[in-house]
Amino acid sequence: MFESIHKASTEIGAASSATPDAAEARIALARGDGIGPEITAAVVSVLDAAGARIGWQEVAMGESLYRAGHLSGIEDSTWDRLAGCAALLKAPLTTPQGGGYKSLNVTLRKRLGLFANVRPCVSYAPVLPGPKQMDLVVIRENEEDTYAGIEHRQTDEVMQCLKLISRPGCERISRYAYAYAMQNGRRRLTCVSKDNIMKLTDGLFHQVFREMAAEYPELATEHLIVDIGTARLATRPERFDVILAPNLYGDILSDVAAEVAGSIGLAPSANIGARFAMFEAVHGSAPDIAGRDIANPSGFLLSAVMMLVHLGQNRVAERVHNAWLRTLEDGVHTADIAHAGSRERVGTRSFARAVIDRLGTEPKQLAVVHYPQRAPLDLASIANPAPRPRARKELVGVDLFLQWDADARQPGQLAHALQAVQGELELKVITNRGVKVWPKGLKDTFCTDHWRCRFQPREGQLSTSMQAVLALMQRVDGAGLEIIKSEGLYNFDGVPGYALAQGQ
Question: Is the pTM of this model over 0.70?
Answer without folding.
Answer: yes
